[in-house]
Amino acid sequence: EGVDDGCGGGVSMQLLQYDLWTKFHNLSTEMIITKNGRRMFPVVKVKIRGLRPEKTYMVYLDMVAVDTRRYRYVYPSSRWMVAGTGEPLGQHTPYIHPDSPATGVQWMASPAVAFDRLKLTNNKTREVKGQIILHSMQKYRTRVWVQEVEAGACWGDLPHLVDQTHAHHASFPETTFITVTAYQNQQRTGEAS
Amino acid sequence: EGVDDGCGGGVSMQLLQYDLWTKFHNLSTEMIITKNGRRMFPVVKVKIRGLRPEKTYMVYLDMVAVDTRRYRYVYPSSRWMVAGTGEPLGQHTPYIHPDSPATGVQWMASPAVAFDRLKLTNNKTREVKGQIILHSMQKYRTRVWVQEVEAGACWGDLPHLVDQTHAHHASFPETTFITVTAYQNQQRTGEAS
DNA sequence: ATGTTTCCACCTAGGTGAAAACTT
DNA sequence: AAGTTTTCACCTAGGTGGAAACAT
Questions:
Q1: What is the pLDDT of residues B60-74, one digit of tens each?
Q2: Which nucleotides of C are covered by protein (CB under 7 A)?
Q3: The nucleotide closest to A181 (CA, C1' atoms)
Q4: Cα separation values, A19 from A25, A28, A174, B30, Å
Q5: Reported pTM
């Protein structure tokens, strides 16, 4: 339940499927990205608490570039090694959770706010809705945001309402990953939760 | 754009895919229901106008039993004929549109509020969420409701908030159908919209 | 040759129409 | 035997891992 918070207030976010993520963190740490976009495995699921029930919030996610290095998987030792300098840190438009906007009651009633529709891609040419563009072979960490918006806000306008200076956030060390376009570690398997 | 309204106010609902529904009304008028639930074809899609932008509404749908007769498809003439008395008129819990609750802005921004997830069933034993239970071989008409609710309402509580006396409604003659468990009319085909 | 990306056949989940089964 | 219901194989859409292709 690693949690930092940006903005004071009692808002808390807890990463679910903690065992799965721990295993991921120990064994693999690699996340596939493809041209057409690939879903994350494991899926980021969080439990959100401490919202004001009647207020309206949107929830969104972005990937924090941990550094500007490039990584390579080295076979004899089966470890990730630094392999030079990567792309400079950039800002991408966050992925807005499809249930947004919704009231505090709704977000908290849900046992798990899941980002299972999110896709990761390396296709820089066309920006597709629902996909986050990342650089290959670089290290990222998942970060989730909760931001209050006006009750009348609608889905289409949400991207313009993103204001990270007035939002709560949490990032989860277990979700740190290195982007690949094909699995490097052969131990990687896809068991369900 | 057949519209009746229950409650005054400028709320209007228009049935979309009118050509498709007209063809349905002229050629077929039969709707499949199965044990496990079957989606409607055509799908009910409506355009909603005249809501107060900032207010919160839920939208739901029910099936009005047109009469208590039982119908049979007679082949030589290829027509539906009355074939005796059916089940008495009953009340079923309405199907709440999965986007509920949402603000007036959101409902009106959508070019078509579609009930494409709705399933119709003849399975009276277990009441399944997302399915409407109907009697076979009887005649029904689709009716759509719009009801204002408090901003803090959440999905799980909506069924208890249904109050048809304080809701707008519209029913569409073109959507009148007779329930069957297998197609009677061989001309029935499933072209897309 | 090695490291990286794209492509593609497999697999799965779920919806559909028609054959099979059931009923009266 | 006719009418009605259920079952089931086909089809489709979309996600996945490994094979093929590409690049350095």
A1: 999 999 999 999 999
A2: 3-7, 15-20
A3: C5
A4: 10, 14, 10, 51
A5: 0.85
